[in-house]
Prior knowledge:
Layout: H1 12-22, E1 31-34, H2 36-39, E2 45-49, H3 59-69, E3 78-81, H4 85-97, E4 101-106, H5 111-119, E5 123-127, H6 131-145, E6 148-149, H7 156-175, E7 182-186, H8 191-200, E8 205-211, H9 216-223, H10 236-239, H11 246-255, E9 258-262, H12 264-278, H13 284-295, E10 306-310, H14 318-321
Parallel strand pairs: 2-10, 3-4, 3-6, 4-5, 7-8, 7-10, 8-9
Antiparallel strand pairs: 1-2
Amino acid sequence: MPTPAIAPAVTPAAIDSAAVRLAGHIRVTPLLDIAASELGLPVDVVLKLELLQHVGSFKPRGAFNRVLAAGPIPDAGLVAASGGNHGAAVAFVARSLGHRAEVFVPSSSPAMKRDRIASLGATVHVVEGLYDDAQAAASAHQLNTGALAVHPYDHPDVVAGQGTVARELELQMAARGSEFDTVLVASGGGGFTAGQAAWFAGRKRVVAVEPETSQCLRAARSAGEPVDVSVSGVAADSLGAKKLGSVAWTIVEHFVADAITVSDDDIRAAQRLLWDRLRLVAEPGGATALAALHSGAYIPSPGERIVVVVCGSNCDPTTVVA
Length: 322
C-alpha cells in the first residue's frame, strides 16, 4: 500500500536558516536572459547558471549546510558516496573547513570526476558498480569510524541547502522586477528538486526532468511512494539514483507540479546547444532540464514564464565540443 502523505521534511524557514549559514561559503550564481530564437526554444527563458557554483555544481550548498549545522565534527571527518559532483563538494567543504574527507565513488563514475575529488584533498575509494554500491561502502565506513555522513540528497539539511538556489533565484528576479511561473530542474535522487519545491511550496510550478533511463521521481509519483528503478544512460553518474530519497518524497508529493523525461539524445543535443550558442560546457545532468524545453518534452502554456536551472558542468569538455 502507498504510504500516506506526511508533512514536508524541509520548510522555507529551514531554507532561510541555511542561507544564513552559507553566507560567505557559496557563490551567488548569475541569471542569463535568453530569447527563444537564440536557442530554438518555444519561449524566452531565464537560465539560472548554477554550473558556475564552486566545483561546478549546486552540490556545495547542501554539503556546507549539512556540515555547518552538525556541530562538532568527529576526528574521522566526513564521509560520502558520490557519482562525482557531491564528492567534489564534500572534498571542497572539508578543505575549506579544515576536516578530513573520505569519498566512495562507483566505478561507473568518469575518471575526471574521481581525479577532481582527489585534487581537492579527499581520499577517494573506487567501488565496483553504481552509486548505490558506493553508498553501501560509505555507510559501512561511517559505522566503523564514526565519521559524519554527508548524504548527497537524503538528509533535511542537505535538501535545505539545495533549496537556497530557489530562494536566491526568487530574490534575484524580484530585484530586477521580473516575474516567473515555472522552474525546470533536473532530478536524480530528488534532493535538488525537493529543495526548490520546498522553498516555493506551491507558489511556483516546479517541474522535475529525468532521463528516460533513470526516473525514480516519476516512478515514485506513479506508485504513490519511492520504489526501486533501473539506472543507466549518459547522465547516470549525476542523476542515476535507484530510489527517490525519503526526505525528498515528503516534499515531492506535495509540491512538484510535474515530472517528465527526456532521452539521452535529447540531453546530448541540449549540451551541444549550450556550447554552440552560449559557449557553456554543461555535463549531461546539467543540461537535462533544458533538454525538456528544447526537445518538446515540456510544452509551455501560452504566456508561461520559465526559468531553467543549468546545474552542473563536470564533464570532459571534449565530449561536448568535439
